[in-house]
């Protein structure tokens, strides 16, 4: 067990201690923070795991963790998020951050309860596993949390923590997370649909090679040109999608071309909207 | 005007001479091929343009161009493709290539008429503007066309021509083109939808920055992990999309979230299909 020099060192407390808390605590510890948690009421397995981590300061209850922490982090599961926030969020004098992948709606409920003096809307962008942790913040105290973290960082270590303040509005960071999620999951669905069609035609490898040739451009550059292009020629793109669907018709049922149908409908909407303006 | 040494040099003929033909003819000429066309029946403007290109060999009719060419290329517009193929494709002793962005169906109609002794399914992947031209070929004569081009290339020049033979089947290359088109236009539609939502929330720049952070990975690596991930957790992804839609509901009408609705439906289908198996 590690007893940090708590008089000078900033304290990050964790309610719950799974994979995400473990990774976060490690990065924060390496960067010079004290990390606290408790095993109150936890399974023997979790106790064993937490006890094996030598840098963690263990308190007897989560209530104490909440009271001692400058930043209190909840990283459990989306459905336990609200309960934990209501129970422990109000006990801390520090700032409460929720990393449970919650909806903007849940985020707002927590904010309504804790007030924006104790709650900051926060999201980890990208993987927690990597050596670089990107934390996005919005809310009245977002700047304070950023200084709190950045002023105390140890620049000599391998793992980096970056913070980005988006705005003073609770909900902005959650909204960005959900827009990103909507886009990336849309791409996933498109990939699955396209490659399932290619597989049926025995052209899977060939399609990988072709997309590898044309899709490896810098994101922003290719995305901007796609957006401009689509606005400029939504009618032609709509017609091309009609052809795509005619082609897919011969070997796919409706569920197998949902994304292509939506793409056609989207361009139909865009071309008509442009026509109306 | 340029009179090539036609006894030794392979001849590429063009029916029609717009932007694409111009770029193709330039690259082929730089690589040591003779390039032929005609201005028969063309506008004064087109005549002036073609006459100004000093490396082009001009014949008096397109019929002669067809008869003289080892490879006859039609690059005009999708709707004129079939007519040109029927009229000139049958006159050539060489191979007829159609670069008119036609549907697999039109491609098959041309193949039925010309037979696979004179027709090769062919597509230019990527932009014609670049210094590198990628031509994909399928059909019985695909290998012959590849050797014809590759054996005659001048390796000492800047602009490169690459050929890729996909298979012996007419239609495979057109199918690849349309699958690629379906995927890339789906991404375009997703981008537009996502950034229109971000704009409404005043978070456009912030979303660009976030996606720039996470979307700049090599295509194949990120696409493969997305596909595997989506199959593994289609139920969770379906639930997350339900949350996305709940969020979008508050400020979007149906047309503004078509892609997200389709993504949700796709994951619903995938999770149920996995359940059935």
Describe this structure in words.
- The structure is a homodimer of 277-residue chains.
- Chain A has 277 residues and is of the alpha/beta class.
- The first copy, chain A, is 53% helix and 16% strand.
- Chain A has helices at residues 19-30, 44-51, 62-68, 78-88, 104-114, 142-150, 172-200, 204-214, 219-232, 234-249, 258-276, and strands at 11-15, 34-38, 56-59, 71-74, 95-98, 119-125, 132-138, 160-167.
- The first copy, chain A, has an eight-stranded mixed β-sheet with strand order 3-2-1-4-5-6-7-8, sandwiched between helices.
- At the A-B interface, helix 7, helix 8, helix 9, helix 10 and helix 11 of A face helix 7, helix 8, helix 9, helix 10 and helix 11 of B.
Topology:
The structure is a homodimer of 277-residue chains.
Chain A: E1 11-15, H1 19-30, E2 34-38, H2 44-51, E3 56-59, H3 62-68, E4 71-74, H4 78-88, E5 95-98, H5 104-114, E6 119-125, E7 132-138, H6 142-150, E8 160-167, H7 172-200, H8 204-214, H9 219-232, H10 234-249, H11 258-276
Parallel strand pairs in A: 1-2, 1-4, 2-3, 4-5, 5-6, 7-8
Antiparallel strand pairs in A: 6-7
Helix pairs in contact in A: 4-5, 10-11
